[in-house]
Every structure is written in C-alpha cells, then in structure tokens.
Amino acid sequence: MTALANGSRPQDAGRPEYPGLAGVPLSLEPLKRKDFTSDQEVRWCPGCGDYAVLAAFQGFMPELGIAKENTVIVSGIGCSSRFPYYVDSYGMHSIHGRAPAIATGVATARQDLAVFVITGDGDALSIGGNHLIHALRRNVNFTILLFNNRIYGLTKGQYSPTSEVGKVTKSTPMGSLDNPFNPISLALGAEATFVARTIDSDRKHLTGVLKEAAAHRGSSLVEIYQNCPIFNDGAFDELNGRDANADAIIPLRHGEPIVFGTDNRLGVIRDPKTGDFSVAEVSEVGLESIVIHDQHRADPSYAFGLSRLTDAGVLHRAPIGVFRSVEAPAYDDLSRDQLVLAAQQGGSEDDLQTMIAGGDTWDVE
Fold first, then answer.
1. Tens of pLDDT along 110-165?
2. Sign of the CA dihedral 14, 17, 21, 27?
3. Which of 40, 65, 103, 245 is at 20 to 30 A from 127, Cα to Cα?
4. How would you list the strands of the sheet with 266-270, edge to edge?
5. Is 318 left (phi over 0), alpha (psi -120 to 50) or beta?
6. Whole-angstrom Cα distance, residue 248 to residue 309?
7. Is 220 exposed, middle or buried (0-12, 13-18, 19+ CB in 10 A)?
8. DSSP secondary structure of 118-180
C-alpha cells in the first residue's frame, strides 16, 4: 500500500491528465475497442439508447491506457445494469440500488482499480437514493453513469422518480402525482465534486464528458439522457430527435459565454439581486451580460442554479455539459491515510481488526 498524507493521492507520471486513475496500472500493450467487448450477446430492445452508451464506453476506454484487468464495473438492477456483461473487464451485477455502496468497498480496498458504477433513474433515485447521495457527499473515487430514460423499463413501464407530473403509465393510469427529481440538482445538493449531463445520441459529446469524468479524482456523476423506445419513446425528441428544437439544448463550456440556439441568438443571464438564471435574447441584453461558465466555482449554488434551467415536465430545454468540477479529498484516499496512521501508532497497516477494535475491547471469561 502506498503511504498517503492528508488525503493526498498516489501519483502516476505516465498519465498526469487522468488524476482520477492515479495508481491504476497502465496496460503493457495498446488496447482497442474489441479488448473491452465481451463474448456475451447484447440483449437490449432494438433502438435502445443503451447501445450508444455501451459503444461510446468501449470506444473511449482504450484511450485511458489502463489495464482492463484493473477495470471494475458495478451495476444495480435495471436495463442499463446489464452493462457489466458486455464489457470484458471485472464487474458485478449487484443489488437493486446498492451499486454505490458495493463500489465504495471496491474503491476503498483497492486503489489500483478504476471503478465505474452503472445505474438507471429508477435504480439510483428510488430504492438507491440514499446510497447515491452518501457516495457523492463522501466523494468516493469512482465514476457513476446514470442512465435516465424517465421510466422503469425492465419492469415494463411504470413511472420512475424522473417521470413528469401527469405521466400516464401502468402504475399511474390517471397520471403521476409525484414531482420528479432533477438528478443534476440532487447531486449538486449533495455537493458532488463532478456533475455532468450528456445525451446518448451525441457520440462526440458523450465521449468527451466520459473522459472528463474519468479524469476527475473523487465522485463523478454523469446523467445520460437515454431513449427507451418501448415504454417511453420520444421523451427527448425536442432535444435530439429528428424535429428537435434548435433552441432546446444549452451547451455548457468552461470559460465561454453560455449562448445557444440558431446563430447563438439566446444566452443565459443572471439577476444580480436574486442570483436567478434565465434565458434572454443576446441582441436585447448584449453579449457582455451573458454568463461565462465556470465549472470550477467552489460554491455549488452556481451550478445548482444552472441545473434549474432544465424543464421539470416535458423536456423543451435542458443544459448539457459539465456543471461542476472541483477538487476535494477522496474518501478512499482518506481511508487509506487512516490505515497508515494506525500502523504508525503501533498497529499493523494490514490488520483492519486492530484499527476497528482499538484499545476499548475486553476479553470476558
């Protein structure tokens, strides 16, 4: 075990652009997409957005340069959670909603592993909601891919925690009464250190966001808008469908004005008194009034405000990109620090029981 101090991380000079993977061994040979493709038949419905996410993931993994035997994918339960079967790496198709908890154990025990969590909006935000927010607040060093199709797909079309009010499904025949979660707002409320959103059909954007998430040391959450052609087809048509509205997507690019729409005619402005964000015509307010995106701002309220530009009902407009990316000590690094400290105080670095028991135990005969 590498000795750490004050939450510092192991250094890997061979991959300085990916601090999130520091300590993970490099592959001895160059890898290709086929090296991350398993021999299992991919079983999703025709047209499912999961295919695009899988292809993007298998395509970008070789670029990380890490050994595939040091890659671990942990999933929960749901359509997206079949993911580990299709990637030739170590993995676990685990318990409903508990993937972040299991992945926390993996990341904490083995700093030489790159850990990815695959989950869906039902798996992560319903039964798994508690595990998700605590993994994010702890800042465990892994990447969470949250597939959001705004429906329960595997169990055949019930409304999910991200379904809009009024959604008619098998479990809500008269329309859902629940206000939906905004996963980005939820993650930012838990003060996650890396939060982003992308879309299954935009391969370039999806790959770019995945790379940034893998590079981050700490918890990275990436919400992926993903179409379910069977039970919720067309949920994102206004954003990326054939007849998509050109003014629907708000791209977030660090250090650039937040402008969008045809000829960048629209922009995001912020009320200096209330701090609220809104959309305005650039020609009316002037380019100097448009917000310059800062994903590294320490206060999460800025990114939270941007996340509220997402429609809560039928999606007509939504920001995509990296909302927040800040540095903070990772939980698993800090945990290993404690093991080193315990060893320095007379215990054994490898004796977990010694650290747990401490001096406050007795043998009773």
1. 999 999 999 999 999 999 999 999 999 999 999 999 999 999 999 999 999 999 99
2. negative
3. 40
4. 259-260, 266-270, 277-281
5. beta
6. 11
7. buried
8. EEEHHIIIIITHHHHHHHHHHT-S-EEEEEE-SSBTTTTSB--TTSPTT---SS-TT---SPP
